[in-house]
Design goal:
Blueprint: H1 2-24, E1 26-27, E2 34-35, H2 37-48, H3 50-65, H4 85-102, H5 110-139, H6 146-155, H7 158-183
Antiparallel strand pairs: 1-2
Protein backbone atom coordinates (compact mmCIF):
# COMPACT_ATOMS: atom_id res chain seq x y z
CA UNK A 1 0.00 0.00 0.00
CA UNK A 2 2.70 2.46 1.00
CA UNK A 3 4.77 1.45 -2.05
CA UNK A 4 1.80 2.18 -4.33
CA UNK A 5 1.39 5.67 -2.86
CA UNK A 6 5.11 6.33 -3.28
CA UNK A 7 4.98 5.20 -6.92
CA UNK A 8 1.97 7.42 -7.58
CA UNK A 9 3.70 10.40 -5.95
CA UNK A 10 6.82 9.86 -8.06
CA UNK A 11 4.81 9.42 -11.26
CA UNK A 12 2.77 12.57 -10.59
CA UNK A 13 5.98 14.51 -9.95
CA UNK A 14 7.46 13.10 -13.16
CA UNK A 15 4.48 14.27 -15.19
CA UNK A 16 4.53 17.70 -13.54
CA UNK A 17 8.17 17.99 -14.63
CA UNK A 18 7.35 16.78 -18.15
CA UNK A 19 4.53 19.32 -18.48
CA UNK A 20 6.88 22.10 -17.33
CA UNK A 21 9.49 21.04 -19.89
CA UNK A 22 6.76 20.74 -22.53
CA UNK A 23 5.78 24.38 -21.93
CA UNK A 24 9.23 25.50 -23.03
CA UNK A 25 9.47 23.29 -26.10
CA UNK A 26 7.43 25.51 -28.37
CA UNK A 27 6.89 26.64 -31.91
CA UNK A 28 5.76 30.27 -32.13
CA UNK A 29 2.43 30.80 -33.86
CA UNK A 30 0.17 33.87 -33.54
CA UNK A 31 -1.93 34.28 -30.37
CA UNK A 32 -1.44 30.87 -28.65
CA UNK A 33 2.04 29.28 -28.70
CA UNK A 34 2.28 25.65 -29.84
CA UNK A 35 3.92 23.60 -27.09
CA UNK A 36 4.30 19.96 -26.05
CA UNK A 37 2.12 20.51 -22.98
CA UNK A 38 -0.82 18.81 -24.67
CA UNK A 39 1.23 15.65 -25.24
CA UNK A 40 2.30 15.39 -21.61
CA UNK A 41 -1.08 16.29 -20.14
CA UNK A 42 -2.75 13.64 -22.30
CA UNK A 43 -0.10 11.06 -21.41
CA UNK A 44 -0.63 11.88 -17.73
CA UNK A 45 -4.30 10.95 -18.11
CA UNK A 46 -3.64 7.86 -20.21
CA UNK A 47 -0.88 6.44 -18.04
CA UNK A 48 -1.82 7.59 -14.54
CA UNK A 49 -5.58 7.51 -14.97
CA UNK A 50 -8.02 10.39 -14.73
CA UNK A 51 -7.59 11.30 -11.08
CA UNK A 52 -3.78 11.22 -10.89
CA UNK A 53 -3.41 12.71 -14.38
CA UNK A 54 -5.60 15.67 -13.46
CA UNK A 55 -3.75 15.96 -10.15
CA UNK A 56 -0.45 16.27 -12.03
CA UNK A 57 -1.84 19.01 -14.26
CA UNK A 58 -3.44 20.72 -11.26
CA UNK A 59 -0.11 20.79 -9.42
CA UNK A 60 1.51 22.26 -12.52
CA UNK A 61 -1.14 25.00 -12.71
CA UNK A 62 -0.83 25.72 -8.98
CA UNK A 63 2.95 26.05 -9.29
CA UNK A 64 2.52 28.58 -12.08
CA UNK A 65 -0.15 30.57 -10.25
CA UNK A 66 2.09 30.70 -7.17
CA UNK A 67 4.66 32.52 -9.26
CA UNK A 68 7.02 29.87 -10.56
CA UNK A 69 7.75 30.64 -14.24
CA UNK A 70 6.49 27.28 -15.51
CA UNK A 71 3.90 28.48 -18.01
CA UNK A 72 4.78 29.11 -21.64
CA UNK A 73 4.80 32.85 -20.94
CA UNK A 74 5.89 33.04 -17.28
CA UNK A 75 3.84 32.57 -14.15
CA UNK A 76 2.04 34.34 -11.32
CA UNK A 77 -1.58 34.74 -10.28
CA UNK A 78 -2.14 37.46 -12.88
CA UNK A 79 -1.80 34.70 -15.49
CA UNK A 80 -5.54 34.03 -15.01
CA UNK A 81 -6.11 37.34 -16.81
CA UNK A 82 -4.31 36.12 -19.93
CA UNK A 83 -6.75 35.01 -22.61
CA UNK A 84 -4.76 31.80 -23.12
CA UNK A 85 -5.25 30.64 -19.49
CA UNK A 86 -8.37 28.74 -20.54
CA UNK A 87 -6.18 26.22 -22.34
CA UNK A 88 -4.47 25.41 -19.04
CA UNK A 89 -7.84 24.80 -17.38
CA UNK A 90 -8.72 22.65 -20.38
CA UNK A 91 -5.53 20.60 -19.90
CA UNK A 92 -6.62 19.62 -16.37
CA UNK A 93 -10.17 18.71 -17.37
CA UNK A 94 -8.98 16.91 -20.51
CA UNK A 95 -6.38 14.91 -18.59
CA UNK A 96 -9.10 13.67 -16.26
CA UNK A 97 -11.59 12.81 -19.01
CA UNK A 98 -8.89 11.22 -21.20
CA UNK A 99 -7.71 9.06 -18.32
CA UNK A 100 -11.19 7.95 -17.31
CA UNK A 101 -12.26 7.18 -20.88
CA UNK A 102 -9.09 5.36 -21.87
CA UNK A 103 -8.89 3.27 -18.71
CA UNK A 104 -12.49 2.05 -18.66
CA UNK A 105 -11.08 -1.19 -20.03
CA UNK A 106 -8.13 -3.02 -18.47
CA UNK A 107 -5.87 -2.95 -21.53
CA UNK A 108 -7.00 -0.13 -23.85
CA UNK A 109 -6.23 -0.51 -27.53
CA UNK A 110 -4.75 2.12 -29.82
CA UNK A 111 -8.16 3.15 -31.17
CA UNK A 112 -9.53 3.77 -27.66
CA UNK A 113 -6.43 5.75 -26.67
CA UNK A 114 -6.60 7.86 -29.82
CA UNK A 115 -10.32 8.49 -29.29
CA UNK A 116 -9.62 9.51 -25.69
CA UNK A 117 -6.94 11.93 -26.89
CA UNK A 118 -9.25 13.48 -29.46
CA UNK A 119 -11.96 13.91 -26.82
CA UNK A 120 -9.35 15.57 -24.62
CA UNK A 121 -8.24 17.77 -27.50
CA UNK A 122 -11.82 18.92 -28.00
CA UNK A 123 -12.09 19.77 -24.30
CA UNK A 124 -8.83 21.76 -24.37
CA UNK A 125 -9.99 23.79 -27.36
CA UNK A 126 -13.47 24.31 -25.95
CA UNK A 127 -12.14 25.69 -22.67
CA UNK A 128 -9.36 27.62 -24.39
CA UNK A 129 -11.49 29.29 -27.02
CA UNK A 130 -14.40 30.17 -24.72
CA UNK A 131 -12.00 31.64 -22.13
CA UNK A 132 -10.10 33.53 -24.83
CA UNK A 133 -13.31 35.00 -26.20
CA UNK A 134 -14.63 36.01 -22.77
CA UNK A 135 -11.35 37.56 -21.62
CA UNK A 136 -10.94 39.45 -24.88
CA UNK A 137 -14.47 40.81 -24.68
CA UNK A 138 -14.95 41.50 -20.97
CA UNK A 139 -11.44 42.06 -19.59
CA UNK A 140 -9.34 43.40 -22.44
CA UNK A 141 -12.20 45.29 -24.05
CA UNK A 142 -11.09 44.17 -27.51
CA UNK A 143 -13.68 41.67 -28.66
CA UNK A 144 -12.47 39.05 -31.10
CA UNK A 145 -14.76 37.94 -33.88
CA UNK A 146 -15.73 34.33 -34.41
CA UNK A 147 -13.62 33.92 -37.57
CA UNK A 148 -10.37 35.32 -36.07
CA UNK A 149 -11.03 33.23 -32.94
CA UNK A 150 -11.39 30.07 -35.02
CA UNK A 151 -8.40 30.95 -37.19
CA UNK A 152 -5.89 31.88 -34.49
CA UNK A 153 -7.10 29.72 -31.60
CA UNK A 154 -8.03 26.57 -33.53
CA UNK A 155 -7.19 26.26 -37.23
CA UNK A 156 -3.55 27.33 -36.95
CA UNK A 157 -2.87 25.19 -33.86
CA UNK A 158 -4.94 22.04 -34.36
CA UNK A 159 -2.82 20.28 -37.04
CA UNK A 160 0.16 20.06 -34.68
CA UNK A 161 -2.08 18.97 -31.82
CA UNK A 162 -3.57 16.20 -33.96
CA UNK A 163 -0.03 14.91 -34.48
CA UNK A 164 0.50 15.08 -30.70
CA UNK A 165 -2.71 13.09 -30.13
CA UNK A 166 -1.46 10.37 -32.48
CA UNK A 167 1.96 10.37 -30.81
CA UNK A 168 0.34 10.27 -27.37
CA UNK A 169 -1.83 7.28 -28.30
CA UNK A 170 1.20 5.47 -29.73
CA UNK A 171 3.27 6.12 -26.61
CA UNK A 172 0.34 5.26 -24.36
CA UNK A 173 -0.19 1.93 -26.11
CA UNK A 174 3.44 1.02 -25.38
CA UNK A 175 3.71 2.48 -21.88
CA UNK A 176 0.41 1.46 -20.27
CA UNK A 177 1.22 -2.29 -20.27
CA UNK A 178 4.66 -1.56 -18.79
CA UNK A 179 3.13 0.59 -16.05
CA UNK A 180 0.49 -2.03 -15.21
CA UNK A 181 3.12 -4.76 -15.16
CA UNK A 182 5.22 -2.77 -12.68
CA UNK A 183 2.25 -2.08 -10.41
CA UNK A 184 1.46 -5.72 -9.78
Amino acid sequence: MRTEKTKNLILCALFVALIVVGAFIRIPVPVVPFTLQLLFTMLAGLILGGKLGATSVGIYIAMGLLGLPVFAEGGGFAYVLKPSFGYLIGFAVASYVTGVFANKVPNPGYKRLLTANFIGLGIVYLFGMVYYYLMSYFYLGTPIGLWPLLLYCFILAVPGDIVLCILGATLGKRLIPIMKENRM
